[in-house]
Write a structure and sequence with these properties.
Elements lengths: L3 H10 L6 E5 L12 E2 L9 E2 L3 E4 L13 E9 L13 E5 L11 E4 L3 E4 L2 E4 L9 E2 L10 E3 L7 H10 L3 E5 L4 E6 L3 E2 L10 E2 L2 H10 L7 E5 L3 H14 L2 E5 L10 H7 L3 E5 L3 E2 L5 E5 L2 E6 L3 H19 L9 E6 L3 E2 L5 E10 L5 E5 L8 H5 L3 E5 L5 E2 L4 E6 L6
Parallel strand pairs: 5-6, 13-16, 13-17, 14-15, 17-21, 19-24, 22-25
Antiparallel strand pairs: 1-12, 2-11, 3-10, 4-6, 4-7, 5-9, 8-9, 18-20, 20-21, 22-28, 23-27, 24-25, 24-26, 26-28
Helix pairs in contact: 1-6, 3-6
Length: about 400
């Protein structure tokens, strides 16, 4: 048995970033940039108005006041997308709308709310600063400036910025092909009528949707009975199709736990089996070439927590993400916690701020590995250190935010 930190290190040591490929920008959300992205031109592309109002020369209304307003002749108007070149005359104003290019010789925009138009003239009651309400050419990025580095996840705003930069295609890391194998004689579909000894399958839906959070659709999903031939056939197919194989169940020491033996027979090299971790002690990890094989526990809570702690970091690294995007905080514990020393424990919990804006964390009820309700109600995991036996009420503890709370 190995400790949790060693297990994570081993998983990451055996994990490689996948090859890259070009993809249309419109299809790139959820992928990771494989190259640095530079500004091809200065952004903004030109001086433009940030408000609806009047483009003026600032010194033309320098003397404006409530008792002595300045009147400027309105010589035309400009709206967003207008490509005409306007030269602003001295002691004139041009009506302008948000996003429209600033006329030549203009150096400020007065908001519509601070001017009155009467008889073809704009009336101003106070001066304005030079370049007020003007989006300056190149203020955000100069030409050639670094905008995004390789390893950046393409989110909707990142995609929008790449569109502004004029990239129709981007080079991204390929998404890993993932196969799921759910083992167990007792498992039935969620809508099934159960007989004695049967339970409904939670792992299929839970893990498929964990993958969807990465914009990954499994290339192979199989539910198999605890029969060695069936497990072998499914694993053989999965290894042919996928970069990552994830199975649940069948990895303990029972007579019907075949996953490890079958994996060895298919030339999968065992990296570790069993972790000093709760939930998730009977975890298996092996490799075949650069393919990763995870054997997660069959209990749904253990399977989901193990996916979060072990599989997720590997999937992130395969997609070129250098740093795991795991949000963690420190919070005050609201009740005592006890356990035996020797295993790292991740306690399902719910955190929230109190009236004084202090972060408090409360363990949920239902902490056994088969109790899905405790995890369903949780929004974080409390890290209960391996060698600790007691965490008193009021202690400051580390918590990890569960990823589905960020969806």
């Amino acid at each position: 048995m190995i400790d949790f930190e060693t297990a994570v290190s081993e998983v990451l040591r055996q994990t490689y970033s996948l090859a890259t490929r070009p993809i249309r920008l419109a299809d790139s959300c959820g992928y990771v940039l494989a190259e640095d992205m530079l500004a091809r031109e200065a952004i903004p592309l030109f001086d433009s108005s940030s408000v609806d109002g009047y483009a003026i020369r600032a010194d033309d209304i320098l003397s404006a006041s409530s008792s002595s307003p300045v009147h400027l002749m309105v010589q035309g108007s400009l709206q967003a997308g207008d490509s005409r070149v306007h030269h602003l005359k001295r002691n004139h104003a041009i009506k302008i709308f948000t996003g429209a290019p600033i006329p030549l010789d203009a150096d400020a925009v007065v908001m519509k709310e601070f001017a009155v138009e009467e008889n073809g003239k704009a009336v101003f009651h106070e001066p304005v600063h030079m370049w007020e309400n003007v989006r300056k050419h190149g203020a955000e990025f100069s030409e050639g400036a670094a905008v995004f580095s390789a390893g950046t996840l393409i989110t909707p705003p990142v995609m929008g910025m790449l569109a502004v930069l004029g990239y129709p295609k981007v080079e991204v890391y390929r998404k890993p092909k993932v196969a799921l194998i759910i083992t167990g004689n007792e498992l039935r579909a969620p809508g099934s009528r159960l007989k004695r000894g049967q339970i409904r399958d939670a792992n299929s839906l839970s893990l498929i949707n964990m993958l969807r959070a990465f914009a990954i659709q499994p290339v192979f999903v199989a539910s198999v009975r605890d029969v060695k031939g069936a497990v072998s056939s499914a694993l053989k197919k999965a290894l042919k199709k996928a970069d990552v194989v994830i199975s649940t169940g069948g990895i303990s020491v029972g007579e019907y736990d075949f996953v490890r033996d079958v994996a060895a027979g298919l030339h999968v090299q065992t990296i570790f089996w069993k972790i000093s971790l709760k939930p998730g002690k009977p975890n298996y990890f092996g490799i075949k070439g650069r393919k990763l094989v995870f054997g997660l526990p069959g209990n749904p809570v253990s399977a989901l927590v193990s996916f979060e702690l072990l599989v997720r970091p590997a999937l992130l690294k395969m997609q070129g993400i250098k740093i795991e995007n795991q949000i963690s905080f420190r919070a005050r514990l609201t009740r005592d916690l006890r356990k035996k020393a020797g295993r790292m424990e991740f306690v399902r919990a719910f955190f929230a701020k109190n009236s004084g804006s202090e972060l408090l964390v409360t363990p949920t009820t239902g902490q056994d590995s088969h109790m899905m309700s405790g995890l369903a109600k949780a929004n974080c995991l409390i890290l209960f250190p391996k060698d600790a036996e007691f965490l008193p009420k009021g202690a400051i503890v580390e918590i990890r935010v569960l990823p589905w709370q960020q969806w």
